Amino acid sequence: MTVRRILSWPVLLGVVAGSALQVQQSHLWPPQAYAGCILPAVLALVLSWLLVWLPPDGKFWRFWPRVPVGALTGLTALALAFGLAGWRASATAQSILDPALEGQDMAVTGVVSGLPQPFEQGLRFPFDVNSAALQGQPVIIPRQIDLAWYASPAVRAGQVWQFNVRLKAPHGGVNPHGFDFELWQWERGVQATGYVRNGKHDPLPQRLDDSWRYPVQQARQWVRARIEAHLPDARQVGLIAALVVGDQAAIERADWDVFRATGVAHLMSISGLHITLFAWLAALLIRGVWRRSAWLCLRWPAPHAALLGGLVLAAGYALFSGWGVPAQRTVWMLASVTLLRLTGLRWPWPQVWLLACAVVVLADPYALLQAGFWLSFVAVGILFASDSGLVNPASPRAVRWLMALCREQMVITLALAPLTLLLFGQVSLVGLLANLLAIPWVTLLVTPLAMLGVLVPTLWDVAATAAGALTLVLQTMAAWPLAVWQTAQAPWWMGMAAVLGGVLWVAPLPPSLRCGGLSLVLPVLLWTPPVPTAGQFEVLAVDVGQGSAVLVRTASHALLFDAGPRYSADSDAGHRVLVPLLRALGVRLDTLVLSHSDSDHIGGAASVLAAQAQAHVLSSVDPTEFADRSATVSPTDMRPVRNPADSSVSSTPVAYTRCEAGQQWGWDGVTFELLNPAAEDFASARNVNALSCVLRIRNAAQTVLLTGDIERAQEARLVKAGTDLRADLLLVPHHGSKTSSSDDFLDAVQPRFALVQAGYRNRFGHPAGPVMVRYAQRGIAVVDTPHCGAIHWSSARAQQVQCQRDMDPHYWRHTVP
Asked: CA 607 to CA 596: how far, in whole Å?
C-alpha cells in the first residue's frame, strides 16, 4: 500500500472537516466524549486500511460486504481529527483561572517567557508561572499569563521574578465582525492577564535569578536592543525589528494603515513569504556547499540535504521570529512538501496542497478561523490551478522572472479580491502595483539587509533607508483617489461563491466559464446589508470596554453617539473597533454626537472622523479641547458642517455644532431631540459631566434615551422640567456610577431595558451595586457589555435585546461570573 493511498483524498478532507466542526462548537463536551471519538476512529481507520491491503479476491471478502472504503476512511479521519481537537481544547479549558482568584493580590514566582513590549506607562510581557500564593497559601493559577508592569525597570526574557499581581480572565470586546481577543489568547495558551502591583503598601518586585530558559527569546530581545541603540528613529526601529525578530507591535499605526491600504502588510512582518524565501535561499546555499564535497554526496544526495537543511534553517528562522501562527503554518507546510520530496513521491498538486492544509490544521485547528490561513492557502491553490508560472522559455532569465512575478501577482490580486472583501470589507485597488514594487524590494533587498545587520550593524542603516523610501512611495499611492475599495461584508455563503468566481476567472478555462465567474462575484460587490424599514430604528451598543459608543440607524441615515475610549497613544476604540464595524456594516455616518469631553467618550473620535469625513459633529466639546484629547485632529483641520436633518453642506467654517437642549430633527419617520445641556450650562457647569448631551430618539411607538455621563443634578432638572422621559431603552447614565440613576429619574423613565457600557472588572467599579439594586427593585432588565458583548435592540422588536455573545457563542469565550 502506498503512502498516497493511506493519505487519500477522503482522509485529508476528513481531517480538515473534523477540525472545522470542532472549532465551531459553542460548548465543549466532557473529555471522555472526545476520547470516545478517538478510539473507535483509530480502530475503524486501521480496519479500512486493512481492507485496502487485502486482495479483492481473498477469502476475507467472502464474508465482508462491499463497503465504500473511501467514505469509511474519510468519516473515521473526521472523527479522529474532531476528537483530537476537542481533547486538546478540553485540556486547555482545565487551566482557566478560578473566578474566585480574580482581583486578589497574589504573590507569583516565574520566568519572563517572551519579548517584553513597551507601552506608554511601562512594559507588557508573557510570564511562565512556577508558583503562586494567596495570603501565604499556595494556589493554582494558569501557567502562562500576560502581565503589565507600569513604570517598570528593564525586564529581560529569561529573568526569574517574584511579583505581587492582580489577575483576571482574558476578556475582550465581542462585536459583529470584530477581532476575537479571547480566541487569540486561547490559541496562545494564555488563560489570565493582569498587572504588577507596585503601590506604596505592596511588596516590592524581586528579581531572583537570571536563567538560561527561553534562550531564543533572550536572543530576540538582545537583537532588538541593538537595533534600538543603532537606529535613532523609532519609525525605522519598528520596521527593522519587525523584519528581523518579528516584533510587529513595533511598527507605528500610521505605517500599518499605509501598508494595509496598499495591500503590502504581509511583507512587513515575518510572513510565509519571508520564511519560504529564507528556506529557498538556505537550500541553494547548502546544495552548493554539499556538491563541493564528494564524500558528502556519496553518503546523501545534495538535493535531499538541501531540502532538509532549508527546512531546518527556515524552522529556526521562524522560531527566532517569535514562532507566530503564520510562521508555524508555513513551517508545517514546508515540512509536508519536503517529506514528499525526500520520499520520492510525485503527487498531483491538489493532493499536495490538501496534505499541507491538513498538516497545518492538525497542528493548529484554530488556524481555520484566521484570515491569514485562508489567504495563504487559497493563494497557493490559485497559483497551482492557474499555472501562473507559465512564461515564454525563449525569453532571457530576468525577463522570464519579471513576467512570472507580474503574472502571479495579477492572478493572486484578482482571485483573492473577493476573499479579501469577505474577510476585511475592503480591497486595495493599488495593491497590484504596490506589490509589484514592494515584493522584490522587501524580499530581495530590505529583508536580507536587515537580517545581515545582526552581523554588520551598518547594514541596518541601509535597510532602514530602503524601507523608508518604499514607505514614502506607498504613502503617495495610499493617498490616490479610490486607492481602497470598501464595501459591506456579505454573508459567508455569498463570499465563498465570489471566491469560486475569482478562481474561475483566473483559471485556464474556456472564456464562457471564466465570464461565468464574474456573475458569482457581482453579488458581493453589490451587496447591501438590511436596514430598518421607514419609521423604525435600530440601536447597537458597541462593546468598547470602559467607554461609550452607540450606533443608531434608520432606513437611510446613521448616527454614532460617542466614539469610545482611547486605549493608548497609538490605539483607540475608533481605530480598533468602530471604523472596522462601520465598514463591515456598510454604514455611512451622517452625525457623530460626542456627549462630553471625557476620554472614554471621545477617545476614538479622530479615527472615526478620519474614516467618515462627511459626518457632522454635534457636541458639547470645545473644538480645541476635542483636538487635544483626540491627539490626531488639528483644530485648524475643519470641515463644513451639515445640518443633521438633510444632506446640504453649510459654509459655516466650524467643525461641529454645539449641542443644546431643544435641538431637534427627523430622519425617515424617527425623531431625534436633545434634552441636555441648556445653553446657560456652558457658563455655569462645574464639571464636564453636567454638559453631557442627552439624546432622545423615538418613533410612533418606541423611545430610546441616551444619557452620556449626566449626574443627579441634571437628572433632577430633566424630571422637574416635566418632559416626558418614558423610554423603552435607557443607556444607563455614567456607566452605572453612584452619582447617577436617582430614584426620581428611574421612576420618570420607566425603561424596559437598561444598557450598561463598561469594562470588565474596571477600576471604577461600574456599575455600582447600590445602583443595580435600584434597577432591580423596579423590575428593569439590566444588560451590560461584559456579560453580553455588543447589545442589539430594534424598535420593530422592542420586547427583546440580543447579545452578541449569545448570537455567536464559542467555547473559548470568557463566561463572566
From this structure: 17
322-351 b/e (C-beta count within 10 Å ≥ 16 → b): bbbbbbbbbbbbbbbbbbbbeeeeeeeeeb
pLDDT in tens, 2-36: 444 555 788 889 999 999 999 999 999 999 999 98
Give the three-class secondary structure for 256. helix
> What's the DSSP call for residue 444?
I
- 319: enclosing H helix or E strand: helix 302-320
Alpha-carbon span 173 to 539, nearest angstrom: 17
Q: How far apart are CA 582 and CA 170, in angstroms?
A: 25
Map grid coordinates 461570573 to a residue. 817
What DSSP string describes 571-618? Answer: EEHIIIIIHHHHHHHT---SEEEE--S-HHHHTTHHHHHHH-TTPEEE
The pTM of the full predicted model, rounded to 2 decimals, is 0.89
d(CA 139, CA 141): 6
Inform me whether the pLDDT recorded for 330 exceeds 90: no
Is residue 326 reached through a cis peptide bond, with omega within 30 degrees of 0 on the bond before it? no
pLDDT digits (tens, 9 = 90+) for 762-772: 999 999 999 99
SS3 at position 461: helix
End-to-end CA distance of the chain: 55
Question: Domain boundaries in the chain?
Answer: 3-93, 99-213, 271-371, 538-807
Assigned CATH for 538-807: 3.60.15.10
C-alpha cell at 372: 491569514
CA 267 to chain centre: 18
pLDDT range class, residue 759, cuts 50, 70, 90? very high
Cα separations in angstroms, 29 against 36, 90, 391, 465, 497: 11, 8, 53, 54, 33
Q: Which CATH class is domain 99-213?
A: mainly beta
183 pLDDT band (50/70/90 cuts)?
A: very high
Mean pLDDT of the 755-763 span: 95
Q: Is the pLDDT of residue 647 over 50?
A: no
How would DSSP label each residue in 408-425?
Answer: HHHHHHHHHHHHHHHHHS
C-alpha cell at 98: 478560578
Q: Do the Cβ atoms of 262 and 429 come closer than 8 Å? A: no
